[in-house]
Each structure stands twice: as structure tokens, then as C-alpha cells.
Design brief:
Layout (H helix, E strand, L loop, with lengths): L17 E5 L6 H18 L3 E4 L18 H15 L3 E4 L3 H8 L4 E4 L7 H9 L3 E5 L9 H10 L5 E5 L2 E2 L5 E2 L4 H5 L5 E4 L5 E2 L8 E2 L4 H11 L3 E7 L13 E2 L3 H17 L1
Parallel strand pairs: 1-2, 1-12, 2-3, 3-4, 4-5, 5-6, 6-9, 9-12, 12-13
Antiparallel strand pairs: 7-8, 10-11
Helix pairs in contact: 1-2, 1-8, 3-4, 4-5, 7-8
Catalytic activity: D-arabinose 5-phosphate + phosphoenolpyruvate + H2O = 3-deoxy-alpha-D-manno-2-octulosonate-8-phosphate + phosphate
Pfam family, one: DAHP_synth_1
Family: Belongs to the KdsA family.
Length: 272
């Protein structure tokens, strides 16, 4: 994958990691624009290539009464407005084959959720749109097995693939990140570390996923030191009241300080 092939992406010559960040789900236009404005301000200041992330719908829910979205077209139009307002690319996840072509009309990167990354029809449908495809490593998959997911994209005639590690299941209610997988997966495609989802604590008896946001900086620092190409973080100005994944999101107020520290680590790594 070539980063500069992603439309509207900036700062690609800065030597920094790239960043996919935004809310878990699009809850409305005002919140999306508010978050995007702040992240764009920070990433421009730090010369970080930035992609706005927001799910137009949430299909993988523990409970039937969990928030799933505000309506597909409404959310996708908000993603387009974010892109047009701030001149940044956008990414959203898809869950069904029919989602691929629909979402591709509005966003620049199609993301395959970890639970669905072995679904050949879905991966191929995303690849066939010509958009960059972000393949999330299944929580149940080895780093080595991700080469087959990447090959599905490439064999479909699309060279724009990346892999995102979002942790591996450890028991029933915890996740771990095996950093040995980073250099392994970099042999197949650029590697992104999903910091916030790696700190989820799934399968809670309440049916609401827990998390360890206090460990975000620890995991992010380790990822940059290990040499990941990009970072993925979900952030919100009010995580406690976010409609999805609030338990493991980073408060927007802490993002600049965190990224400043991570850029310093990256510069040190680049100088070695």
C-alpha cells in the first residue's frame, strides 16, 4: 500500500506514523465535526498524516438494544461532510457485501471488522471498489494467517491493503497485544495498531464491553517503539456518554499530549 494514494491525506513526507482516529460510531453531524476539527488541528500541528474514522453503523453488538446507528445514508453523508469540510480522507467499517459499494461512494478507506476478516466475499467486495482496504486481524487469528487476507485483496487487483492489529483474545474477558506480530505482518502490508480496541474487556455479564483506557499511552508507546506504520484510536469529547465503546475510548482532551509524546518517540526511532 502507498499512503500517498489515499485521497487528501497530508504530511506523508514527515516521517511520522499515520493516524486513523475519531468516534466509534457516527452519532450525529455536530459531534462528528467537533471531533474532526480538533483532531485535524492537532495532526496538522504535529505533521501526522490523518484519516477520520467513524462507523456508519454498528452490526457487531452484544445486545439487541445496543446502539447500531442513526441511519446508513445519514451517517455516510456526515462522513462525506467531514471529508469536504476539513479536506481529510475518511474510513468506515462494512459488514455486508452490499455495504462495500454503498460506503465506497462516501469514504476513502473500507475497513473489514476483525470478526469478519475471513469472509472472502466481503473482503473481495471491498477490494473490487478500488478503495484502500483496512483488514483488521481477527482476535482469533495468528499474525501469519493475515497474509491470506491481504492476498485476497491483491488477487482482486487492488494493491491498497493494510493490516490493523486490535489484540488477541486472552481468556474470555481480556485482550493482549503480541508485538511479535508487528514485524511479521509488515512483511505482507503496512501495519496499524488499534490501541483502544486492544484494551477492550469483552463478554461482560452486563452485555456491555468494558475497557482499560488508562493503558492507552502504554500500548501506543510500545506500538510506535515496535515500528508500526500507523495508529488507530477512538476518541470522543464525552466517552462516558458515547453511544458505542465509550469504556475504552480516549478522551479528546488527552489526544494532543499523547500524540506529542508518540511523535517524539517516532523521531527517536527514526534517528537510530
Amino acid at each position: 500500500m502507498k499512503l500517498d494514494k489515499i485521497p487528501q491525506i497530508k504530511h506523508t513526507d514527515a516521517g511520522n506514523f499515520f493516524l486513523l482516529a475519531g468516534p466509534c460510531a457516527i452519532e450525529g453531524e455536530d459531534m462528528a465535526l467537533r471531533i474532526a476539527e480538533r483532531v485535524v488541528e492537532i495532526t496538522d500541528k504535529l505533521n501526522i498524516p490523518y484519516v477520520f474514522k467513524g462507523s456508519f453503523k454498528k452490526a457487531n453488538r452484544s445486545r439487541i438494544d445496543s446502539f447500531t446507528g442513526i441511519g446508513d445514508e445519514k451517517a455516510l453523508k456526515i462522513l462525506r461532510k467531514v471529508s469536504e469540510t476539513f479536506n481529510v480522507p475518511t474510513v468506515t467499517d462494512i459488514h455486508e457485501v452490499t455495504d462495500a459499494e454503498k460506503a465506497a461512494e462516501y469514504v476513502d478507506i473500507l475497513q473489514i471488522p476483525a470478526f469478519l476478516v475471513r469472509q472472502t466475499d466481503l473482503v473481495v467486495a471491498a477490494a473490487n471498489t478500488g478503495k484502500t482496504v483496512n483488514l483488521k486481524k481477527g482476535q482469533f487469528m495468528s499474525p501469519e494467517s493475515m497474509k491470506h487476507a491481504v492476498k485476497k485483496v491483491i488477487d482482486s487487483g487492488n494493491e491498497q491493503a493494510m493490516i490493523t492489529d486490535r489484540g488477541t483474545m486472552f481468556g474470555y474477558q481480556d485482550m493482549i497485544v503480541d508485538f511479535r506480530g508487528v514485524p511479521t505482518m509488515k512483511e505482507y502490508a503496512p501495519v496499524v495498531l488499534d490501541v483502544t480496541h486492544s484494551l477492550q474487556q469483552p463478554n461482560q455479564t452486563s452485555g456491555v464491553t468494558g475497557g482499560r483506557p488508562d493503558m492507552i499511552e502504554t500500548i501506543a508507546r510500545a506500538g510506535v517503539a515496535t515500528g508500526v506504520d500507523g495508529l488507530f484510536m477512538e476518541t470522543h469529547f464525552d466517552p462516558a456518554n458515547a453511544k458505542s465503546d465509550g469504556a475504552n475510548m480516549l478522551h479528546l482532551d488527552y489526544l494532543e499530549g499523547l500524540l506529542t509524546n508518540l511523535v517524539a518517540i517516532r523521531k527517536t526511532i527514526n534517528s537510530l
